[in-house]
Amino acid sequence: MSAFKGSYAYSVDNKGRVNIPAKLRKNVAREANDTFVVTRGYEECLFVYPQDEWNKLEESIRQLSPTNSRHRFFMRALLERATESQLDAQARISIPKELLQFAHIENEVLIIGVLEHIEIWNPKLYDQYLKAQAESYETVAQTVLQK
Amino acid sequence: MSAFKGSYAYSVDNKGRVNIPAKLRKNVAREANDTFVVTRGYEECLFVYPQDEWNKLEESIRQLSPTNSRHRFFMRALLERATESQLDAQARISIPKELLQFAHIENEVLIIGVLEHIEIWNPKLYDQYLKAQAESYETVAQTVLQK
DNA sequence: AGGTATCGTGGGTAAAAGTGGGTAATTGTT
DNA sequence: AACAATTACCCACTTTTACCCACGATACCT
Known about the structure:
Two copies of one chain form a homodimer.
Chain A: E1 7-11, E2 17-19, H1 22-25, E3 35-40, E4 46-50, H2 51-62, H3 69-80, E5 83-86, E6 92-94, H4 97-102, E7 108-114, E8 117-121, H5 123-132, H6 137-144
Antiparallel strand pairs in A: 1-7, 2-6, 3-4, 3-5, 4-8, 7-8
Chain A binds a DNA duplex through loops.
């Protein structure tokens, strides 16, 4: 079970390659085989799953019913953008243009570890996201955490 | 068990040939024998099954009752257009005109991997399909995924 | 503090993938 | 049997991707 944490300011080169920070790599299971799946996230960012974590997600998608139109929509939207990528010798994954466009990413990214997955943001959009929250961290904490 | 994912903008030549993206091919079982079955999908797109996955589907259709009129309709609609096609040396399948017309496909297609099958769309129709959804991806995710 | 290993970034090149077209074989039709 | 139409197979070109090498910066260790 992965436990990613921390945020990292990294760059994207003109081939669409993004380095996976060393501190995050140390938390990737051996079973992931240096392979990651990138797809759209919630809000305008990208989610990166190590292969072992992706497999869990895939399993839960398989339980959905292809004859249910809402399920179909969800499966299509999620899988449409999903791309597998293996680390190169420099520990980078390459992200297709379409995904970079989806997340409005150009040259710089903010990489955030969120337990079982990794998020990739346009740094400016992440700032806006934080500012757009109506409630403060403290208020949300009160309702989200029981304790 | 196939696990297709990702979307790919490809072209159809004037012979009705469509390339199966390399990343999808890597997920096709050896038992499929480079053979695919194309038929109508849900919404106005085409479904492509590798032979091994098609066989599973066919098996479940056999369980239907030919004396039930709704079952009969379903079987006819599905099988009527089903066409077998084997990859050529360039990894393309050829799709009959009738099926291309059914899906309103002309020169360009969007190919989407959806776990056990592959979908082929007119890119514009797929856009419309996405926009026509009443709920956002985030909202659907919340109710569709338990977690 | 200095040497060493690791890390992040950039670019070049060979192999693979995608696209288009030509010709021979096959099919069906008159 | 001859012809037209379709299909299958082969070849050629362009673009993209994967793999390799190189360099500067940072962290680490003794």
